[in-house]
Design a protein that fits this description.
By secondary structure, the chain is mainly α. It has one domain (5-90). The protein is built from 5 helices and no strands. The protein has helices at residues 5-15, 17-32, 40-53, 58-67, 71-90. 9% of the residues are buried.
Length: 95
């Protein structure tokens, strides 16, 4: 099974080398068992957060993201955040 290594490399940076193999295995399991996805409400919430930080209207930010083909990257970033949160919650760190 081939998986996208980008989230795994980010997890390695975030948690360190000891956690890397466990994260890789857990991420592969996630792709089979866990149904982690991003809802339109979560996308809208993030757009609202971005808009507030730039003192803009949410529709302005959404239009900008759509015109510059950034919506898929936004969804990908949100999904990666959810996967990291999932891994942190499920992690069992042993020494």
């Amino acid at each position: 099974m081939v998986i996208n290594e980008t989230p795994i490399k980010n997890i390695q940076f975030f948690f360190g080398d000891k956690f890397y193999l466990g994260a890789k295995k857990c991420y592969a399991l996630h792709r089979k068992k866990e149904k982690i996805f991003v809802t339109e409400d979560e996308v809208a919430e993030r757009i609202n957060e971005i808009a507030a930080s730039y003192h803009k209207w949410p529709q302005e930010i959404k239009t900008y993201y759509e015109r510059h083909n950034l919506m898929s990257q936004l969804r990908s970033d949100l999904k990666e955040e959810k996967i990291k949160k999932f891994l942190r919650e499920k992690a069992k760190i042993t020494e």
